Amino acid sequence: MPSDDEPTYDEPKYTAPGLSLAQGGEAASVLQERLTALVDLALTLKHIHWNVVGPRFIAVHEMLDPQVASAHRMADKVAERIATLGAVPHGTPGSVVRRRPWADYPLGRSTVIEHLQALDTVYDGVASSHRAAARRLEGLDDVSRSVMIRQLRRIELYQWFVRAHLEDPDGALRDAR
């Protein structure tokens, strides 16, 4: 969570039409949590891209770059929505580290299966939190909620891509977690 040395900004003087300042601020706060997660996800995906080794390396290596690009686009959409609501999006590395309540990605150079199992866990957290954010935004800000739902579809698709590498012929996932 933000520390006392986090830069401070004036409270928004405006928000999106049809929302009160309080509603815009609350929606922006929900979105800031998602921005933090999406910036972290993009960095984590690139880290895996650089550090995955072993059989099926190239398939996973090449699968991850489009996911990185998509996570960057999702972060940009969320940051722009925060700004539209009159708030300040925080996306600096220090801000992301201070604001995230989860531990850093645990692996360095590691095998395809180990990275994909860890990435499946990352996607579980991002997808679950996006779904919770969509619920929190319901009745508060339908535009922001719509952004979350569209992104959730993409996040779940990418998790399916990851799980396809972990699935056995009977449909069970390899799980070393």
Description:
- The chain contains 5 helices and 2 strands; from the N terminus they run αβααβαα.
- The chain is mostly helical and 177 residues long.
- It has a single domain (21-166), classed as Ferritin, CATH 1.20.1260.
- Strands 1-2 form a two-stranded parallel ribbon.
- Helix 1 packs across helix 3, helix 2 packs antiparallel against helix 5 and helix 4 packs antiparallel against helix 5 (142-166).
- The model has no long low-confidence stretch (mean pLDDT 93).
Q: In summary, what is this structure?
A:
The chain is mostly helical and 177 residues long. It has a single domain, classed as Ferritin. It is built from five helices and two strands.
- How many structural domains in the coordinates? 1
Helix and strand pattern: HEHHEHH
Instruction: Compute the average pLDDT.
Output: 93
- The radius of gyration computed from the alpha-carbon positions, rounded to a whole number of angstroms, is 17 Å
* Second-tier CATH architecture: Up-down Bundle
Order of adjacent strands in the largest pleated sheet: 1-2
CATH class: Mainly Alpha
Features:
Ferritin-like_SF; Ferritin; two-stranded parallel sheet; mainly alpha; 177 residues; DNA starvation/stationary phase protection protein; 2% strand; Ferritin-like; elongated
